[in-house]
Amino acid sequence: MINNHACTLQSECVELYNCINGICTHKNFFPPTLSELIGMLIIAIFTGFASLAGIGGGGVVVSLMTMFFNYSQKEALLGVFLPIFGAALGNFLNLVQQLDPQTKTPVVKIRSAIVACPGMIIGSMVGLILNKILPAFFLISILQYFLYFSCQKFYKTAVKEWNNENQRKLEQNSLDIPILNKLSEEKQQLLQGSSFRDNFDTIIAICIIVVTVLLGLFLRGSANVQSIIGVSYCGFFYWIITLGLVITLYYYFDKMFDRFQKEELKPLKKECLRDSIKAGLFNGFGLGGGMILIPMYMGMGYTTIQSTGTSSFNVLLSSFQVAAQVIILGYMGTIQAFTLFTLTVIGCYFSSSYIFNYLKRRDRLSIIMWGLVGFVIFAMLNLAIQFFQKWSHNGYQIFELFAFQSIC
Question: Is 67 helix (H, G, I), strand (E, B) or coil?
Fold first, then answer.
């Protein structure tokens, strides 16, 4: 992980950092310390909650990375995309097998999620650039504001869902919960086998988006990876390719919306583009776009669990391309990136699977939201404490709080 603090002695670096070539650089994960092992476990459990709720949980993961891995806020904000991507993949492998307990239809609405992806990628490209160049104080202030904003939304949703669950229990008068009844064989076959062509179309669409983004990134290159066509990093053609990628993604959004969305949702096209770009911008800051996408999907008529499940698929695709940029641009070493990704995939798959199935049996899926409320409050407090601790270690230098960095 890149760290800009110069050093001449090991004592000038904080814990878990080594003075290498005159720069304080974070140690690799292996061999792990006790603090790092505990951090990975907590990140896996939290991301299990967060992914089920349809968010990346970046704000909380940043807080955990600073607390257990001793990363600076700046480093954590850049490196957070690897565990977010890993968690999103682990959770998707779980949710893609699940059905909504209310409607008996798939939790993840992949076609709607794909429509929002081009706009999210555009927003995250901009957000990642701003993340790199904005001063630490601005980034932390933005992060705290949106954590507070998210906490309010999660609390309101949790109260609403909790009351609905209580009402269902009263109406059922202690009888077996109907939502747990298994689908008939006929209906299962209908749901699983009715749309091979649709599934094929969505797979092709995903592949087109992923290949386009990766091709654009390798064509323009970065400070650490040379362009495959010899384009100078941050030169004229570098930005031309970036602009071309944005235009191409907008074209994809336009065509995919018309192809995949139902006729009655066509009037929401501009709103969907705006919200998906905004969600991507927040994702570029390491916040995740769930706070924007979930209300958008609920406005399309999906249930809460379908909205969160669909949003989690967006987190998977958008965090993949941001994570790829983080590695290609050299913001995180390959070994660290692979370790964070792999451990989070495994941990989140098992944690999200256990949490979802247990809460579904109890008809208490609202607990996911209650858990997030608690985690967000913790993150807000911990981020503030960690911020002042890091600042004090550097002698309360005011210029560090407001120092801009160059993307190039």
Answer: helix
- Would you state the structure tokens that stand for residue 102, as one six-digit string? 């209310």
Preceding omega of 101 cis (within 30 degrees of 0): no
Most distant CA pair in the chain, distance: 71
* Separation between Cα atoms, residue 317 and residue 245, nearest integer Å: 16
78 Cβ contact partners less than 8 Å away, ≥ 6 residues apart: 1, 2, 131, 132, 286, 326, 331, 332
> Per DSSP, which regions of 175-285 are E strands?
none
Residues 6+ apart with CB under 8 A from 37: none
Which parts of the chain have pLDDT scores under 50?
1-3, 174-196
Tell me, what's the pLDDT at 173?
54
In terms of residues, how long is the chain?
Answer: 408
The span from the CA of 261 to the CA of 85, in Å, is: 26
CA distance 48 to 40: 12
Per-residue pLDDT at 125: 83
Rounded Cα distance between 238 and 42, Å, is 40
| Contacts for 29 with CB less than 8 Å, ≥ 6 apart | 36, 335, 336, 339, 340
pTM of the model: 0.65
Q: Which residues pair with 26 in a beta bridge?
A: 17
Tokens 């776009």 found at: 289
Pairwise CA distance, residues 151 & 59, whole Å? 11
Angle at 78 between CA 72 and CA 79, to 5 degrees: 85
Task: Report the alpha-carbon distance of residue 154 to residue 55 in Å, rounded.
Answer: 11
Place of tokens 């704000």: 59
CB 284 within 8 A of CB 124: yes
Helical (H) or strand (E) element with 340: helix 334-362
- Coil/strand/helix, residue 33: coil
Q: Is 184 exposed, middle or buried (0-12, 13-18, 19+ CB in 10 A)?
A: exposed
Q: What is the Cα–Cα distance from 332 to 292, expressed in whole angstroms?
A: 28
Q: What's phi and psi for 215, nearest 5 deg? A: -65, -45
Question: What phi and psi values does residue 26 have, to the nearest 5 degrees?
Answer: -65, 140
In this prediction, residue 250 carries a pLDDT of 93
Residue 252's pLDDT is 92
Beta carbons of 127 and 269 less than 8 angstroms apart: no
Contact 220, 227 (CB under 8 A): yes
